Amino acid sequence: MIETYDLLLIDLDGVVWRGLKPIERNVEAIRKLCGRDVKIIFVTNNATKSRRTYAELLSRMLDLKISEKDVMCSGYAISNWLLNRYGKVNVYPIGEEGLIEELSKAGHRVIDGKMIDKVEAVVVSLDRTLTYRKLEYAHEAITKYNAIFTATNQDHVIPISSGTAPGAGAIIASLVKSTGVKPIFTAGKPNPYMANLILKRLKHSRRRVLVVGDRCDTDVAFASNAKLDSLLVMTGVTGTIASSKYKPTYIAKDLLEFMEKS
Ligand SMILES: [Mg+2]
User: Fold this and answer.
1) Which of 43, 162, 202, 203 is deepest in the core (most CB within 10 A)?
2) What is the Å distance from ligand 1's center to 213 Cα?
3) Domain 75-186, what fold?
4) pTM for the full model?
């Protein structure tokens, strides 16, 4: 089966690693695939790191040369979306270094709380240094200065080595509650935006593309929304498949099992 695809869009958290600890059987499968005639792009909703940092981490872990172009993340995607829609804007981010790097690289001006009246867009993401003050600034920018409210992704939880922890969606929910406003755009999966960016850049059709992920509500839904095939692996936060309205094309314990079955 795997031979029928020439472009794989592989999720990171819960597929390549769990809290940056490699998931060995998937990593082994990816190493094998890299020697074959198949293009791999790593696609993640996690915006805490930039494409550059992900490429460095992946190169080291896989012992292969992975470049920034081989990675798509929601921090890059939202920066790209803002640029295409509004040009370069003043952004107040709730997020970590990786998001700030992607916003700056796209030419946006990242603004701190002292200049909140200048903010044109708020971008909310996973921020493990979140404070009440940051929520206050974002709330003020949205309610008082009419900044547009956007998000990198809506994942409720993130997988960590001991289980799960609150994700970007949990932070967004608190701002939705306080402002009464919902994000006008969320770049990450299940929105097909990142898939469309990749296909456009590679000039690739929707055929012969396989999305590999660990979640029905994000990865499989993303594939379905982008009209791509999907493989669900059981190495991450897979919920019950029966309860999801999105059904994967294939299910396997892990990527190596899927390749061996093929
Ligand atoms: Mg995942």
Assistant:
1) 43
2) 6
3) Rossmann fold (3.40.50)
4) 0.94
